Amino acid sequence: MTNISYRALLREFDLRPKHSLGQVFLIDDKVIERILSILDLKRGDRVVELGAGPGFITRRIAELTDDVIAVEIDRKFQPLHEKLFSTLHTKPLVLYEDALKVDFQVHTRNKTGRLIVFGNLPYYLTTDLILYAVQELPSMDRALFMIEQDVVERLTARSGSKKYGVLSIVTGLFGRWREERVVSRHAFTPKPHVTSSLVSLIPSDDQDNRVRAADPGFHRFLTDVFQYRRKTLTNALKLAYDREVSPDELRRFLTDRELRLDIRSEQLTPLQFKDLYETLRLTICHSGEN
């Protein structure tokens, strides 16, 4: 397809972006081909696409692998999807649902090849969708996301920096980020106000770290503590959990790891947060934790 035919299809089906959903449509064929090159799909790969939109990328993915699960909250795209996918040997399974409510584990059982995640993410939902993807799809072999360029700093932030937070801790424990390329505003219609980036999440070989990074209880713990990121860790835990955390237990944790007793929450590394959570998990008693 060319940029002209993408625009023609959008006009034919009278499809306009819904600003409340943060919709912008990728119509640059060179960028789409670059996405496919990065994904390097093979027959037998199962691809989960978060936010199919008009389905232009979905169709190209389905031409390369016959196992595609695409999620799209906006049903207005369904007639265009039916046209685009009509000639495919195996049509994608399109779930017209909120991606943050999909039980992906049901849809990713019994896979025979790799599990690949792709998402051209609405900027306002980037953090939620990436965290949910890690939580719901911990067995992924890789992920590729189109995000606002400014978010890259939050993904790769180091402990102690202003951008460091739940997103960088969870994904830093789960794996590592690689920035693939910057994508111009001109690749989209309508043109967004910001530049975008394609970033890959490469999962760690450490299964234990990946499992903990996917743990919803661990996510809640980080959220609780980072309400008080500038406080000392001792005070942050006291504020988050009242008197549930023993000062002696925390002091032992810190001294055993040669950490300062007045260390701030934001200064712990992802691995140190994992150790802290596993030390305190039974004490803080979040329901539903593993």
Question: What does this entry look like structurally?
Answer:
The chain is an alpha/beta fold and 290 residues long. The C terminus is likely disordered. The chain has a 7-stranded mixed beta sheet, with helices on both faces. A two-stranded antiparallel sheet has the order 1-8. It has 2 domains: 211 residues, Rossmann fold, CATH 3.40.50; 69 residues, Helicase, Ruva Protein, domain 3 (Orthogonal Bundle). α6 runs parallel beside α8. It is built from 13 helices and 9 strands.
CATH superfamily of the largest domain: Vaccinia Virus protein VP39
At the first level of CATH, what is the class of the largest domain?
A: Alpha Beta
Mean of the pLDDT scores? 93
Work out the radius of gyration: 21 Å
CATH topology of the largest domain: Rossmann fold
What is the CATH architecture annotation of the largest domain? 3-Layer(aba) Sandwich
Helix vs. strand class: alpha/beta
What portion of residues belong to β-strands? Answer: 15-25%
Kindly, what is the distance between the CA atoms of the first and last residues, rounded to a whole number of angstroms? 47 Å
Number of domains: 2
**Topology, number of strands:** 9
